[in-house]
């Protein structure tokens, strides 16, 4: 392939896959590809989907993607896969096999893990979003399997964030609800045919009431049964409603400026991290430091100060 | 309080709490405290507890802590709380209220979040472990609520890591199992009185068999019903067994060297991140960059390269 970025811009799906692989594996050409694609970004609408494991996020995302397709939109799905560092992306494989979406040329599905990573997952996800954006996809889902801080940070970067919950989750559900209350623009109770859906909806409503701060957008709490295709059009309609809302009140611009800022800092962190690892780890210098730290001749705080003085202007 | 570190070393519980708060909030005195405490670390045994939300990790950890207490050990518990950035640690409050452990002078419980954070959670957790270690606690539990990458990284840093699962978790359980297979030294199926416990045990055994690589430690798969105090002594016995095993084969030293290395790199990342944010964000310089990026006059990759050239020697 002559020039991967050119091919991505021409709509070559293989080039799209190659570009994301280059990002994921931190290949040398990744930065060059991103530089070339960057001017062509900013057109796609980015939807974040998060929630606890077992909430049926993948199924729901797939149904939503189909609904967007039936409305004439092309769709990208980036599934953040916390297991990739271990399993090498087995889940995506399973997902593709089971998924008739994969046969649709208007859909592009990709999982992102931290496999082989030196830098962070969040700037890689941001770059993958940009590649799909430049490719010309209309709507991009960023779906996180985890409920950890890094996953929350990732979906926070979306234009609109939806939190998926299900009735009757164990002990930690209060914790999860508290944690996600402030990031959800939309809440969807999936598996709403199970016992406890109304109770969960009432609880969420109460928590949103208690949230106190006057907001010009009250997050709707929707119900769906994704695997029976129930509630899907309503969710997509609500996405559109939220998008129109934040376009009109200027919040979309604010969010995207914030995103650009955070992405720049993430990228800088990752690149400096690479530089530091190169200087310390690849050179083997770190082993001497670690021995001195372990034997308590010195402490990590003193060593880190010294290293920074040597590295930074 | 004259000198927090001195007071920690004398066994002052209030000083211990203050030291961890200083770390969590990145107070100016945090590094000085850590430098003073560092020479007194290395004696505690660190146990990582992870697993999906709803697995009953808190209850299990509390029962294990009681068992260690009944064997004459003092215990520290650090609960990594992904909701703290949002909710201000409400969970810990709930936990303390419900928890008779909090009345025991031989137990110290603390939650860690990313609230108010500029740096990462993982170096703060590492520092909190060291404070408890220097304080003189025998066993330290690091318990993560999430299943995300950052949480996994945190428990990976333990001497022994236990993964807690429960029967009959939804769609994502396969994903979780794949992800945690390689980090678990011990697996415990909690709520083992529920349907599906035997099935889960069989599946885990099969996955461990398929894992292929010859290992000198086959992770045991235990069963427990934490809220009925069933299986607790066996888990603690297995912790001891694993500890003896890795002490004898030298793996403990290897793990601790690896931990010291990763902690140093984490600390360096966090400190450099602080420095970068200070230089760019606090000075307001970043806003100009972001505007140029947003208007597509330049791209983030070019900006980051330029910033690095200006900052690094």
- Backbone CA Rg of chain A: 21 Å
Assembly of the depicted chains: homodimer
**CATH level 3 topology of the domain at 42-250 in chain A:** Rossmann fold
pLDDT under 50 segments of chain A (min length 5)? 83-94, 115-119
End-to-end distance of chain A, in Å? 41 Å
Label the overall shape of chain A: globular
CATH class of the domain at 42-250 in chain A: Alpha Beta
CATH superfamily of the domain at 42-250 in chain A: P-loop containing nucleotide triphosphate hydrolases
Question: What is the spatial order of strands in the main beta sheet of chain A?
Answer: 3-2-4-1-5-6-7
Q: Got a strand count of chain A?
A: 7
Largest sheet of chain A: 7 strands, parallel
Structural class by secondary-structure content of chain A: alpha/beta
Task: Describe the structure in your own words.
- Chain A has helices at 4-9, 13-24, 30-37, 57-70, 84-87, 90-98, 121-135, 149-156, 173-180, 197-210, 232-248, 251-282, 285-294, 300-311, and strands spanning 45-50, 75-80, 107-112, 139-144, 160-165, 186-189, 221-223.
- Chain A is α/β, with parallel strands linked by helices.
- The first copy, chain A, has a domain at 42-250: P-loop containing nucleotide triphosphate hydrolases (Rossmann fold, 3-Layer(aba) Sandwich).
- A 7-stranded parallel beta sheet of chain A has the order 3-2-4-1-5-6-7, with helices on both faces.
- In chain A, helix 9 links the parallel strand 5 and strand 6 (186-189).
- Chain A starts with a helix and ends with a helix.
- Residues 83-94 and 115-119 of chain A have low confidence and may be disordered.
- At the A-B interface, helix 3, helix 5, helix 6, helix 8 and helix 9 of A face helix 3, helix 5, helix 6, helix 8 and helix 9 of B.
